[in-house]
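Field reference: sequence -> structure
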Amino acid sequence: MTAEVEVVAAEELDQYADGIRDVYARAFAAPPWNEDPAQADHYAERLARDARRTGFTAAVATADGAVTGFATAWTTPEAFPADRSYGQVAEALGPGRTRAWLCGALEVNELAVAPEAHGAGLGAALLHAVTGPAPDGRCRLLTSVRAEAALRLYERAGWRRVDAPVPGRAALVVLLGPRHPERVEAGAGAGAEGGDR
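Structure field:
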């Protein structure tokens, strides 16, 4: 099964909606996420709203007409949000680093690959597709330290952890992209294990 990855405009996402929902449900049912399949319905609703965000970009992987993976990203607002996990991230980094490192950067929100498509390089291809437009190379994502396979993918792709654990039960960590100018200062170098969840 050979998959093709393409960047998809927000207004074209509807044609992939069922496949994206299916991949989301299967990808996030496994540990460490352990999401109920109903969460995929909530994600589909959220995706329709997220597609209107500034700087929104999406990539979809398909094979034989079926969606096998997807990724979404957008530009983090200059006024850093406080909803979802944003408040916890700001608490971990502090106001100066949050403003300098994250505001105005491209944030990868979701990246998911169907279980049967793992190991084919789709995660890296999707990640590359959505981070291409990162302003000045500034991109970041958030994932769980328990998501070992995801962390290995990001590390292989050149992403590095910020040495500031995000408070909360999800054990989240911020990663900066390979071209992010603050990587050295972030303490995100040697020893990193390396989504937004």
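Note: The helical segments are 17-27, 38-50, 86-102, 122-131, 148-156.
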